[in-house]
Amino acid sequence: MINSHTSDIKWMKRAIYLASLGKGRTSPNPMVGAVILDKNGNLISEGFHLKSGLPHAEAMAFNNLKKDVRGGTIYVNLEPCCHQGKTPPCVDKIISFGIKKVFVSIQDPDKRVSGKGIKLLKDAGIKVHLGLCEKESRELNKSFIHRNITNSAFGVMKWAMSMDGRVGLKNGRSKWITNKDSRSLVHSLRASFDSIVIGGNTLRKDDPLLTSRGIRKPEPLRVVFTKTLDLPGKSNLWDCKLARTLVVYDASTADKKFLKRIPKGVEIEELSSDNPILLSNLLAKKGCNNVLWECGPKLATSAIKAGCIQELMTFIAPKILGGVGSMNPFSDFEFTDIDEVFNLRQSGVSFISGDIFVKSTI
Ligand SMILES: NC(=O)c1ccc[n+]([C@@H]2O[C@H](COP(=O)([O-])OP(=O)(O)OC[C@H]3O[C@@H](n4cnc5c(N)ncnc54)[C@H](OP(=O)(O)O)[C@@H]3O)[C@@H](O)[C@H]2O)c1
Ligand SMILES: [Zn+2]
């Protein structure tokens, strides 16, 4: 065990910052950054994981080395891997390059690593410090951690509503409740998600594009969840030149004759029921660490009930839609006592040209 100092915190924060440069591109892998100091404490290299299939952060840092590293220190925000994946194990590199001290922020939740990487380093006589900037590292890789622990994708539900809590008029119209700047922010938010989910009815009513407008390349996977498969023959989502689209249907209720309306190029998967957790599991299996749910009230309610949602993003416009039949963000959770309702933890509030943007944890 080694103690940490202010300078160690500084270097670990640098590793976390480098890791964050991979945001939106590393899935199914985590975001990882590495900083290497020589034996005198001088910065001699750094690296980060850019994309799945490309070198890990530690490997990139060793590839960038310009000076002798023997006896040096490495700072990395996630436990170095010890398994042969698409790239060779980083633990081997750390040992063979003669590193003497390793600062690791958090253990890798991936069962193939999970403590084994740290043990191998210690067995090789390297001093290992675990837990530096743990909170920041957990926050950065919360989706990766969630997927590894639960086998489902980290879910964020996003909706736009009026001051009186309406997401649309009685006739289904909802374009546009929020202002242009809020909608631009949604495009950048989408860029940090691996997939975006809507239900069949939102596709029929809104025909959305669901892209980041080119901010993320490739665009997130666009997903339509349907019980009926009664989807239109023409839709913005069927244009797969812009982004991949996946239709997921409940095989127990869907009418497969509608499959022929879906053009070639659109991916199709079936599930045994309409339980949204099966969809979240499927997306996790496809390598999505996180999902942005942009659905209407019915699917939103089912998804929350099924435990698919970990965070909420609410855009509130200074408008009043009114109307008894106007849409709410959710349908009925069937609460009968105020003690049963969801008590959210607010994690951020900001103004966007007059709209209010609230982030909360469920
Ligand atoms: N203001 C906003 O932020 C916002 C966001 C999204 C949507 N909306 C509005 O919401 C309206 C659509 O609302 P909606 O509630 O029908 O939304 P939705 O997003 O279409 O979800 C409902 C649909 O999802 C499919 N589904 C699959 N499994 C389900 C399950 N377990 N539970 C419920 N649905 C399941 C069904 O599709 P099939 O019918 O194809 O079987 C169902 O009709 C539209 O008018 C849209 O404009 C507003
Ligand atoms: Zn590695």
Descriptive notes:
The protein has helices spanning 6-20, 57-63, 90-96, 116-123, 134-140, 142-150, 180-190, 200-206, 276-285, 297-305; strands at residues 33-37, 43-48, 73-78, 101-106, 127-130, 154-162, 195-199, 221-226, 245-250, 267-271, 290-293, 311-317, 345-352, 355-361. With 362 residues, it is an alpha/beta fold. The chain folds into two domains: 6-142, Cytidine Deaminase, domain 2; 151-361, 3-Layer(aba) Sandwich (Dihydrofolate Reductase, subunit A), CATH 3.40.430.10. A nine-stranded mixed sheet has the order 10-9-8-7-11-6-12-14-13, with helices on both faces. Strand 3, helix 3 and strand 4 (101-106) form a beta-alpha-beta unit. 42% of the residues are buried. Bound molecules: NADP nicotinamide-adenine-dinucleotide phosphate and zinc ion. Zinc ion (ZN) binds at residues 56, 58, 80-81, 90.
Radius of gyration: 23 Å
Give the count of helical stretches: 10
Low-confidence stretches: none
Q: Indicate the proportion of strand residues.
A: 15-25%
Question: What is the CATH C-level name of the largest domain?
Answer: Alpha Beta
Name some characteristics of this structure.
binds zinc ion; 14 strands; 362 residues; five-stranded mixed β-sheet; 10 helices; Cytidine Deaminase, domain 2; Dihydrofolate Reductase, subunit A; alpha/beta; nine-stranded mixed β-sheet; binds NADP nicotinamide-adenine-dinucleotide phosphate
